[in-house]
Amino acid sequence: EPPRRIEGIDIAHLHGDEAVGSLVSFQDGLPSKERYRRFRIKTAPGGDDFASIREVAARRYGRLLQEGSQLPDLVLIDGGLGQLRAAEAALAPMGLLSGDAPRFVLAAIAKKEETVFTPAHPEGLRLPRRSPALRLLQYVRDEAHRFAQHYHHILRRKRVMDE
Fold first, then answer.
1. Helices (H), the chain
2. Tens-place pLDDT, residues 28-44
3. Of 40, 46, 87, 107, which is most buried, counting CB atoms within 10 Å of its CB?
4. How many angstroms separate the CA atoms of 127 and 52, rounded?
């Protein structure tokens, strides 16, 4: 079945400074802005996108599990196979990706070639350029990127003003 609820994750930083993560949520193909979340990266070394993705995924889905909240149908990571593996490393110990019925689908979409990676398809999937599914994934990815960049710029401006 097509995913009804999709969450997208992206990381933003400038040479490791003011590293942040973003999470956007889409319901039935439309942004659900009240579910958007911002994360200051706390434990990952500056500039380590993989560690930052692990941190954001662990914090977000660990909390949803702890609260007993509804999980999305699809989690989309902005990036390629490395970013997918980083999210997988955070989510697998929680039991979200294992078993006969994983709790949700995990995927990543790489920008340049628009290749979609999943744990079941690490070689990548190429959807037709005009595919509505690809366009939705691009929309989620681009919105996560925009939201992460916006938060990063807010923190950078605040730091400059404080200095």
1. 49-67, 81-91, 132-162
2. 999 999 999 999 999 98
3. 87
4. 28
Are 28 and 34 contacting, i.e. CB atoms less than 8 angstroms apart?
A: no
- Can you read off the two tokens belonging to residue 81? 């196979």
> At a CB cut-off of 8 Å and minimum separation 6, what does 114 contact?
126, 127, 129, 134, 138
Contact 112, 44 (CB under 8 A): no
Q: What is the pLDDT of residue 13?
A: 85
Distance of alpha carbon 23 from the chain centroid? 6
Report the relative pairing of strands 105-109 and 115-118 from DSSP bridges: antiparallel
* Whether 149 contacts 12, CB under 8 Å: yes
* 12 in Cβ contact with 20 (< 8 Å): yes
